[in-house]
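Hi support team,

I submitted a single chain yesterday and got back a structure, but I'm not sure I'm reading the token output correctly. Could someone confirm the output below corresponds to the sequence I sent? I've pasted both exactly as they appear in my results page.

Thanks,
R.
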Amino acid sequence: MPLDPTALGYTSPTIPVSWDERDTMLYALSIGAGTDDLEYTTENSIGVQLTTTPSMPVVYCQPSSDVWDRLGEFDWSCLVHAAQSLELHTPMPPAGTGSITTTITEMSDKGTAAVVTARTELRDNDGTPLATGDSTVFIRGAGGWGGDRGATGKPPTPEGHADRKATVTTAPTQALLYRLNADRNPLHSDPAFARKANFDRPILHGLCTLGIAILSVARTKHTPGMQLQRFSARFANSCYPGDALTTRMWFTNGSTAAPEAAPPGTTGSRNVAFDTLGPGGVAILSQGAATFGPPT
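Hi R., thanks for writing in. Yes, this is the structure output for that exact sequence:
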């Protein structure tokens, strides 16, 4: 059944959100941070201050169910999270309260399917923007209302060998950890449910895979003066807990220098293109991009 085109521009009611230090540490552990990342995983280590991992706001920058309900009737089993981006306006504190609002910003009619993007803004209690996330979904069988087909081009794939690679072997319990970040979809925990969806067993959350990749990218710079400002990627294929994931990075500012090679005090940004490969070299994340810049 085609979607309701009048849903374009719909803005959800404001929803309160909160998080504490336990949430911050749990999220870090769920994307593979550990004993080498005590600034993300502990709150009482001597000389170490707890901070949030750069991708943590993505947990809160997700549309509420009423946003997708506004699209009209469709088969929820045909909805796939296709892409995610996040812009970081200011560092998220390790504990706090705030609110989110979501607006349906794009609806593309692909004929036999629909592509919808919803933008979620996370603010603190003072109204200060913390992060803005764009969530794009692909819905099979939901096109045909006569709308615009939307963009079809793809960004060019980086040429040449990657400037850096990082391989992370996920834990068999990775999805069970990540689901505690308020994503209890049984596709990631219930073997019977996963089999009904034609998977051998529960799959890893796409946002977990993205968090693992962004942590790998963030580890390419550990010097003051530059911080992650934005990132995006497409979800190309699923993977399983226990899989080894290799994130390939290309430093795209005209040199092979990593972001930390930017001159101290620079006001320019440094860009990283990335993808993530699973077993057999299958692309799990594609068209990845991250931007580092001066602190906000």
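A quick pointer for reading it: The chain has two domains: 5-140, 164-293. Let us know if anything else looks off.

Best,
Support desk
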